[in-house]
Amino acid sequence: MCIRDRVIRLRCRQAQRLKINRGRTPRYMEGVSMNKKAKVIAASLCAAQVITMIPLSAAAAEPQLSTTTIAVGENHSLVIKSDMSLWAAGDNSKGQLGLGSSKSSSNGEKVMDNIVYVDANEDVSFAIDKNGTLYGWGDNSEGQITNKVSAATISNPTKILDNVAQVSTGDGHTVALLEDGTAVGWGSNEYGELGFSTNTYKNSVTELMKDAVDVAAGDGFTLVVSKDGAVYGCGNNDQGQLGTGNYRDMTWLTVVIESGAQDVEAGDEHSIVLMSDGTVKTAGSNDYGQLGTDYYNGGSANFGNVSVKGASAVFAGGNSSGAIANGVLYTWGSNESGQLHNGNTEDLNYPEKVTTGAVSIAFGHHHSLMLRNNGNISSVGAGVSGELFSTTSSIVAKPEYTLNNVTVFSAGYDHAAAIDTKGTLYTWGNNDKGQLGQGDYNVRSVPTKVKLTYEAVNVWCGNKATIVQTSDGKVYVFGDNSNYLLGMKTRSDIVNTPTENEYLSGTTIDKIELQNDFAIALIGNQVWGWGINSVGRLSTCGSTVKYPEVLSDKLVSISDIAAGDSHCVAITDNGDLYGWGSNSVKQLGGDTSSRVVDIPELINITDSKDNPISLVDIAADGSHTIAVANDGTVYAWGDNSYGQLGDNSSRLKTPSKVYGNSSYVYSSQKFSAVITEAGDISLSGSNSCGQLGDGSTKTRNTFARITNTNVTSASLGGEFAGYISYDSRLYCWGDNTYGQCGNGKGGLKSQPETVIRDGLCKQLVQAASVSLDKTDITLKPNATAKLTATVAPDNASNKDVTWSSSDTSVATVTNTGSVKAVKNGSAVITVKTDNGLTAQCTVTVTTPISSFSVKPAKTKTMDIDGTFTITAKIYPANCNDKTLLYSSSNEDVAVVDENGTVTAVSAGTAKITVTAKSNPAKTRTITVKVRPAKPVITYRKATTDGIVLEWDLSDYADGYQVYRRNSAKGKGKSLTDIVSDDPDDLTFTDSTAVKGKVYYYYVKSYVTIDGKKLYSKASKIYKIKAK
Length: 1027
Description:
By secondary structure, the chain is an all-beta fold. The chain has 1 helix and 82 strands. The radius of gyration is 50 Å and the shape is rod-shaped.
């Protein structure tokens, strides 16, 4: 039987045992992924890559490690490699690998790039890329991926939300944490897991709460941690998984831990909380010891402490749990497939040390992945569909050699047994209930000898049970005895070593049919039975038959027997058919109309011409029966849901011919086999695990031959089978989850195997900003400049940047930031980080002025309020920027405008500087001298004392000099220097004038600059005759 069906049936029985009754078939999170959050401003990587922003949490196993890069579903697995590429392996029947098809993969297929976070559950997958975009694919039957897509399955990654930091998917619903701290959920709300009144809609994205730092989704329930360390829960609480102290479902978020929490994880029906002090708390179901409280019980509705101290990360998935404390990985809980990564298959009710150097572990119901801090990823468990990232497969599609010299072979549900010509008993396959008789519970993938005192002569296997008869007449039993399937009382429900059944010893057993919780045996032509009696399958015996009893005195001279789930059939030496038990789908055959037959009844069966049919061989399982008539014709009746009866009808209400020329028939729940008189073997029915042996997994409703004339006998197990050839060689095929095909290549690996060596493991800090040392530069053609980029923060793991130019015909840039000007124009240089942050610098390329001249070239003397304009000649003539810049050293004396026009303001000296804008090194200087205003003589007169002169004050003058000429054009002689700004002082009498002689007088004002006098123009010259 395939692991999928095995797990579902096991969980359903568990649900019934725990009295779960909510008006629906319970869901189970096959392989729910722990949330595994690093939730720092980083994700994880072995090489230097830039990662998306993820909120802070303590879930990282070490400060520089992340736990968000592996995830497992029911039969598939997801892994992020060191280059941020996402890979998927395993079952893809619902598109959960994201490959755009339904083709499964055992070696792993690349799904997409730039992924930093993954989560999976059952047949659903989610991923978050480095930009915070959430994608989902797989089973969408309840809108758990998105209700915006009506399809029940989505086979390609589909964008769901932006700005997502974390995601966790449960059974039918999904919750996510946005980068702003908002917790949201969508999908099913059957139990109120979305925080509001229950409904059966495919709900859209709904806000759960703000200021959250962590979320987790379980089987119909949700957990949220707030920024102040409180834990909130809502939804399904039938196992106490919310930790509220009771078992009432909650349709709104309710505080279950007041403070101190850092991280939450959810399994199927249990919860784990990591506290800030490193304490680990658990609540919920404890059937497999997943609470880690050193005992097995129905669980707890209150959070209790686990013995692990100083934890830095916690994990949950299915019914398994884990934690990392002080660098050590501890695991506990369900381990039936070795998923605890500890090398065996025994459940643990306490934390057990597994290894050091682990970063995270992703638990499923029957497999797990573990990531180490060197990037190695190991897988362990049942490789049902290739989910172990290994060619080790749980399917053997064609018969393969298993063992030589075999005389007896029996296939149980998921284990097998064989006896060789020396009487040696071998067992192999699953051993979770000790059904291999090896004294332990470890799986065996090759035939392994069982210690017996005497030679084995016959063996029968069933569901987790084995019965063997030895040459001394004794009968030994081992395996599951919870329903007295071993036909005796035992001290415990499990017997893992051969133990004598004194009630069967001493009898001669021809055949035993072991079903889930009852058995019948053919002993001395009589039918015996034991186990749980319901719907009359053990006839009128009591409800529980603890020891083998003869079922009915009507059953005499019996030559063959067979049993289904709830019905039994037997044929007599003369070919008559008897039937008893359930007849709900006409599995007893003939004209029997009763739905339940508790006293064996003779069943009259006839062919299409109403001729009586005499039977020689018979088989049954489930709710169907198949038999061989004395003429070799094969007839079948009852349920045919899988085509196991070799007919295309869903049910055969009366015995119908389905094959011919046969000697033997064999049947299991979903498929059947016939061996022809020539020794061929043909099969029909379900082929999901390759159990039809034709090299495919395609179901068939007609019998098809897989061998030619070499088969002597066969046996069918849950979803595997085997036959013995004429030369006593045993061949097996089909489901090999637990190595039940015996070829040493079983899909169940109890020992971890490294399957990927470049997993994403090391936490990296994302770049938060990038800047340039220059925001604009000007260059001339062929000139270069260096730009330097700074990525922040300083501890950013990836500081790599790329450079680009908006116009490479103007300016180019290298990958190191070196800019080269090409031609006149403007271009923008952009630097970009791997996560899309940018900074820019504008580059202006221009042909500058190489030289220029000005007029006046050096100096210019001016009067106050006078102006002049500087003219220039520029070289080269083709420069594209001929702009000249003008400035004055003393604007109190002279100012200059942008056109080069100089205006004298006051007396003094100023330097006018002319600068080439495109080449600031090129300048010219003009010294401007501004004279004071010339004096105005207001009084002049010749007197007997001399010639008297008076004049007015001149603006900005420091002093005045009086000049005299002896002739109109003669040289003026300075007569006096008067330094005063008092008008009364501005007078002079020339007493040296000679009477009767004519003189010429004038006055100049001046200012003193740096010790030198700057004179104004001369005043008006006056001709005066001395007296």
